[in-house]
Amino acid sequence: MTTIKEIALKANYSNTTVSRVLNNDQTLSVSTEARNKILQVARELGYKTLQERKKEQKLSNSAPGKVGILLCHSVEEELNDAYFLSIRHGIENECEKRGLNSTEILRIKSFKEEQMSKDIEHLIVVGRISEEFLNPYKPQLKTIVYINHSVDDSLYDSIAIDFEKATKQALDHLLSLGYRRIGFVGGQEREHLPNGHVDFEDGRKTTFKQVLHEQGLFDPDAFYTGEFTMSDGYELMRKAIQKGDLPEAFFVASDAMAIGAIRALNEQNYRVPEDVAIVSFNDIESAQYTSPPLTTVRVRTEEMGKLGVKLMLDRLEGRDIPVKVTVPTELVVRESCGSKQKEKQNKHLA
Fold it and tell me: Are the C-beta atoms of residues 163 and 150 closer than 8 Å to each other?
């Protein structure tokens, strides 16, 4: 283990000065240059302060058990829509980075057969799973963190996104481009219970209705919902095409659904964005490689997974107050919304 003496020798300062700098002695009068040099040498030699060693020891003592990751989606569903797959990867990568290699994947759809191992002491829940579902397992759990859902902000840490704000951002973009006949393609959210599930109102769907009602533009005949899958995106867009009088733009509630919807449009010789503009949600990796590339709301899914682990560890270090983190989103403008075509038209008219 690196000693104060070794750091002092390499940094060319006295043992006393080095010790006081490393222990953050605010009464010490030392230049910024000297302080930075001592800290740099300490880092290079791998020195850890007493406070850091106590913190590591406390974490080591308080987190000996497994970390369970409870998922709403099957492997097939994860592969179909990379949103939740990316969250899981974020959790696993952060656990590995923090030395928490003892993790176990649990999936809600096969949970009765798997059950929860008795050595799982910390649980990260991904998706809409009710608190009631976890009641039998609470005695063994030291920490529970919810990602993409929140059941009780007064008890549990959670990480979410602001669906309302993100949806408004996407719709404002379409409206700013001059689109007035805007359709909706989305899925049905569900909260999983011990013996089934209940429908859960999706923030994207609610906000879409609200915004377009306020603008006097909502058309119930251009509103389609199914499951959050490529196949349902495809089938719902086929239904819209068959109905006729197709809207000039669509807000699609996931990139996976948008990919299916564009396939349906292409098959019927509709061009995106020339005939129908598309804005979607999530910004999965493949969104930038579709034809045309998708304009979409970027959700930092992997970061959500990492934050889940950080909140769990923060609890183990002594934080008693539950925290809810809202991860910001941003609109990534690519070609599917037609903004580039609009710019060309405006330049031509000018």
Answer: no
E-only strand ranges, the chain: 66-71, 103-107, 120-126, 143-147, 157-161, 182-187, 189-193, 196-200, 223-226, 249-252, 277-282, 295-299, 324-327, 329-332
Does residue 338 share a domain with residue 213? yes
Query: Are 254 and 183 in a shared domain?
Result: yes
Q: Which residues pair with 160 in a beta bridge?
A: 326
Cβ-proximal residues to 92 (8 Å cutoff; 6+ apart), any chain? 69, 103, 305
Q: What is the pLDDT of residues 228-238, one digit of tens each?
A: 999 999 999 99
In this structure, what token pair is assigned to residue 56? 């590591």
Buried b (16+ CB within 10 A) or exposed e, 29-42: eeeeebbebbbebb
Number of domains within the chain? 3
Query: What is the rounded CA–CA span in Å between residue 103 and residue 189?
Result: 27
Q: If you ran DSSP here, which 8-state letter would residue 13 be given?
A: S
Which residue range forms the structural domain that includes residue 15? 4-47
Question: Is 126 a domain residue?
Answer: yes
Residue 57 lies in a domain: no
User: What CATH number did the domain enclosing 22 receive?
Assistant: 1.10.260
Q: Examine the domain organization and report whether 150 and 278 are in the same domain.
A: no
How do residues 265-302 score in pLDDT, each as one tens digit?
A: 999 999 999 999 999 999 998 999 999 999 999 999 99
Q: Are 289 and 262 in contact (CB under 8 A)?
A: no
pTM summary value: 0.76
Q: How far apart are CA 203 and CA 259, in angstroms?
A: 21
DSSP 286: G
